[in-house]
Amino acid sequence: MPESSQIAELNELEEITCTNTDPLPVLLKKKKAIRKYLQAEELKPYQAELIKLQKHLEINKQKMIILFEGRDAAGKGGTIRRVTRYMNEKHYRVVALGKPTEEQRTQWYFQRYVEQFPHGGEIVLFDRSWYNRAMVEPVFGFCTEEEYKIFIEDVPSFEKTLVRNGITLIKLYFSVTKEEQKRRFERRKTDPLRQWKLSEVDLQAQEKWDDFTNMKYEMLKHTHTTIAPWTIIRSDNKHLARLNAMRVILNAVDYEGRDEMLDYVPDANIVVSGAREIELMEAQRLRSGKFIG
Questions:
Q1: Rounded distance, CA 155 to CA 193, Å?
Q2: How far apart are CA 152 and CA 147, in angstroms?
Q3: What's the CA gap between 83 and 45, in Å, rounded?
Q4: Per-residue pLDDT tens for 73-95?
Q5: What is the rounded CA–CA span in Å between residue 85 and residue 66?
Q6: Between vectors from CA 282 to CA 277 and to CA 284, what angle results, nearest 5°?
Q7: Which of 1-5, 15-19, 32-36, 149-153 comes out lowest in average pLDDT?
Q8: Which residues contact 280 (CB under 8 A, 6 or more apart)?
Q9: Bridge partners, 123 (sequence order)
Q10: What confidence tens digit (pLDDT) does each residue in 133-177 have?
Q11: Angle between helical axes of 24-60 and 76-84 (0-180°, round to 10)
Q12: Is the pLDDT assigned to residue 1 strictly greater than 50?
């Protein structure tokens, strides 16, 4: 649905359902409910296309891995839920690994992730992935400098091997601003339905913002490759981030039955290539002496 039509429909629905006699809290709740309804409706045609994509992979025994990376509260989990909402549960898995066990610590770093890889006809969505070693682990001292260095050197060839062996690899980095992250953390503190999301690591995320930004730059600089590129999703607006992430995924495979009437072009204000993000960050550093985010 075009944005102008969506706004017109939103205004019309608000006129129908919201009256001047409504108390302000009720009025705000109604408007929020209408907006969420329209946003959900806008996603549905893309979710229908994701089912077609999934069917194509199943029939052709193709494998897909989607990495969802980014800072805490960047919108990764919510996007994964929308992407998979109508998919056939038999042919996708969401993988969110916890801390490695003592035994896993003695293994090849990538081993526990490889164990979760898809079989033919399956999509695996990693809610954080092996890129923990590129950002979270070095920032919090969970790995040594040598372990980090080995990872950064090894990961391009590791991913090249995956792609050459027929895996479609999509690497999404959700980029949230410091102000929006803070707002989302504050909401988690006060919302009993979201408090479970707030961890000790989250509480330090704002304090370590610059450290994470520096590691983000190093990660993109060393692991954005032609064969396994990064796609940056600006995620301050959750709905637009989800919509455009779906577009990126749908553009990764040429599947049958594509709805040609649908707009698959990512919004240039939301979706940025990894190469362009590196350029933008370097320009920020030249202007202000440091990276912004």
A1: 37
A2: 9
A3: 12
A4: 999 999 999 999 999 999 999 99
A5: 15
A6: 95
A7: 1-5
A8: 272
A9: 64, 92
A10: 999 999 999 999 999 999 999 999 999 999 999 999 999 999 999
A11: 60
A12: no
As a whole number of angstroms, the distance between CA 108 and CA 67 comes to 20
Residue 95 Cα distances to 27, 190, 273, 292, angstroms = 39, 28, 25, 30
160: CB partners within 8 A, 6+ apart: 225, 227, 228
Q: What are the structure tokens assigned to 96, written together? A: 């969110």
DSSP 272: E
Judge whether residue 9 has pLDDT over 80. Answer: no
Give the amino acid at 281.
Answer: M
Q: In the chain, where do the E strands start and end?
A: 63-70, 92-95, 123-127, 167-175, 230-234, 271-273
- Output the pTM of the full model: 0.89
Q: What separation in angstroms does the CA of 264 have from each of 79, 99, 132, 148?
A: 17, 37, 30, 37
Distance CA 80, CA 126 (A): 9
Is residue 10 classed as helix, strand or coil in its secondary structure?
helix
Dihedral, CA atoms, 140, 146, 147, 149, nearest 10 degrees?
A: 100
**What tokens appear for 226 in the block?**
């032609």
Single-letter amino acid, residue 258: R
Give tens-digit pLDDT for 212-228.
999 999 999 999 999 99
Specify the length of the chain in residues: 293
Give me 210's structure tokens. Answer: 């610059």
List all residues 6 or more positions away from 46 whose beta carbon is below 8 Å from its beta carbon.
243, 246, 247, 250, 262
Domains in the chain, please, with CATH? 46-288 (3.40.50.300)
CA-based nearest residue to 75, from 174, 188, 170? 174
